[in-house]
Amino acid sequence: MSSGPGGPDTPSSPPKGGRPGDLQKWALGARPRTLAAAAVPVVVGTALGHWLNSATWIVFNRANSARRDGYIVVHTGPNTLWWRAVCALIVALFIQIGTNYANDYSDGVRGTDEQRVGPLRLVASGLASPNAVRTAAMGAFGVAGLAGLTLAAATSWWLVLVGAICFAAGWLYTGGPKPYGYIGLGEVFVFVFFGVVATVGSAYVQTGRITAVFFVASVPVGLLATALLEANNLRDIEGDIVSGKRTLAVRLGRRRAGWLYIGSLCGVAVGIGVLAHWRPWALLGLLALPLAVTPIALVEGGAEGRALLPVLGATGRLQLAVGLLVTIGVLL
Asked: Hey, where are the domains in the chain?
C-alpha cells in the first residue's frame, strides 16, 4: 500500500530516479510489460495459419490424365502472408496500448489509482493531463484501426465490426458510466479478446477460414492472459477495496482469487495437451511450466500487496516462453 497520494511510496509518483522525459513517460504509460499479452496470440495464430496453408493434400482425380498413380498434389496456398502478420501484430499491440492509456485516463479522472501498488500512471502522477492521455488512447486506437482496415480490405469487411467491438471493449473496461472492469468481468474480457479473438483472428487473416484448432489453441493463450490480469488484481486487492473497484479478485477474496490464478495456469497445460491432438509438438509448451513454480508458491503462500509484485513479472515471462514454444511446436 502507498503512504498516501503523492507520498514517497505511492506507485503513481514519478520514479525515484527523477521525472521521466516526455518520451519515457509515454513509454512507461503504455505499460510495455503488458504487451506480451497482445503479441503472443498473434504469433501463435500466425503459426497456425502457416501450418494450415502449408498442408499438402493428396487428392484422387480419376479425370486427370496427367495424374501420377491416380493422385495429384494440391497446395492450399502461400505459406504465410507476412504483411498480414505484421498488420495483425500492429492491431493487437496498439489496441493494448490504447486500452492501457484509456484505463490510465479513466482511473485517473475517477481517482481510483491513488491506492495502487502497480506501475506508474500518467494522470494520477501528474505527469500528463487527462486530455493528453485520452488523446494518446485515441491515437493508439487510430493506428490499430488503420492496420485493421488494411486487413479487412484484403480479407473480409466483417473484421471492421470485430475491430469496433475490440475498441469499445478496451475503452469501456474502466471507462463509461458502468465500467465492467469494476464489476469483476475483466478476466472474461481478457480471455475473449486476448485469447479467442486475437488468436483466431490472426489465423483467419492468413487462411481465410476458421477451424476448430484455432479455437483450441486460443484457450491456453487466453488463460495465460487471464492469469496475467489476475496477478495484477491479486496485488491490488487492498487498494481496489478502498477505491471501490469490485474486481473478480475483490469479489472472490484473496484465497479464492489465488486459486483462480493457479487454476488458470493448470488450464494452460490442459489446453496444450488438447492442441497436441492436431500438432503433437505443441507439447513443447509444457517445458515452460517450471517457470510457474515461483509465482504459484507466492500466490499459494498467501503473499499480499507488494510481496506479489514478482508474480506479475514471472507470469509475463511464462506467457512469452509458452507462446514461443507452442509456436515452434506448431511449425515443426
From this structure: 22-331
